[in-house]
Amino acid sequence: MRERPRSAAAFARAQRSIPGGVNSPARAFGAVGGQPLFIARGDGPYLYDLDGQRYLDYVGSWGPLILGHCHPAVVEAVTVALHNGSTFGAPCELETELAEMVVAAFPSIEMVRFVSSGTEAAMSAIRLARGFTGRSTIIKFAGCYHGHVDALLVAAGSSATTHGVPSSPGVPAGCTQDTLVLEYNDCQALRDVFRQRGDEIAAVIVEPVAGNMGLVEPTAEFRQELRRLTLHYGAVLIYDEVMTGFRLAYGGAQELYDEAADLTILGKILGGGFPVGAYGGRRDIMRQVMPAGPVFQAGTLSGNPVAMAAGIATLRQLQLHPPYRYLETLGRELQHGLQRALDAAHIPGHVQRVGSMWTLFFTHQPVTNYTTARQADTQRFARFFWEMMDRGIYLPCSQFEAAFLSAAMTPEHIHQTLDAAQQALQALRP
Ligand SMILES: *Cc1c(COP(=O)(O)O)cnc(C)c1O
To answer: What pTM, to 2 d.p., does this model score?
Structure first.
């Protein structure tokens, strides 16, 4: 492993005043050992660390940067907005402009409310679904992440229905007792739960393509059963498209699969690198949000003009120059090349991908849910991760995360990545 003395010093300093030295645990490299890079700057597809090394960035700030770092149109829009004042605590037209763009992008979203993170959006959507239905129970799926909302901080990896057991100290059992956890892609469990307690279920929340246990695709049957059962029992179907929205297609997974959720949660790309989340959906549900309706939700910096400007500029670029076909082509080449490299090195593994989201799982079997994801060889992943880092490729620092392509990447970058991966996997050979 290469020495990175300036990052090491910066990390030591940060640890004295910030718990663990980071402001979000995914950044701490805990799952791969070693210490995080401290970043000096980003430019297009690249990150530069404090030690002056350049890396091809497959993290993209964990999803937002589909255009890469410092896209000129985003920089320009943010600069203009900033000079007009950073926050007003009063409405401005940039909010309506971005809201109209969201409504136009997602046929299932008739109205939308902006907040400041995906977590806040998920929390608000759950409250709204409960307020709208007058029911309490929510269903989530093991391995899906919806931000650090108390009621959703339940991972339980069993395939049986489990009453939520909090996965963090500080979350009282009362907060998760109405959360049921099912296995992703398990249609029978879903049918059983609805048959037993369908009239208690306020909402089902799902990542329509899961990215937070590594990349896992939903089966067509799973998607259809989610829609059919929630309609039949009057539960709110919440698609968490914080990661997939504007990434798998401009209209997210719902466009890709031609589906409609009742409520949709957005974030990441929507803010163009700034803190923006949103929840939106059916007008009759959204009209319950205060002050139109009785369900409370508020935010001092919600709809922040600088963040709105970044989001508008990002979405406009995605409309003017849709990158989705291009990213699919790059992604396919990367996926097939990585799979060949695995096979050539006789290392068991599966490269799973939808569009520009992908994960190389070190597993014998394809991954379909949290249980099969957890069978991955995480030690082998950690070695692969560092071999790639030392070759200038910055991957997510955990087996259970999706990597992202950006529109700033070229076929040449894919070739460089595949060369690095071939060498890295050869170095890993048993
Ligand atoms: C990142 C993410 C969140 C949380 O968003 P934050 O802005 O980090 O709070 C929620 N859901 C999904 C699917 C995500 O990927």
So the answer is: 0.97
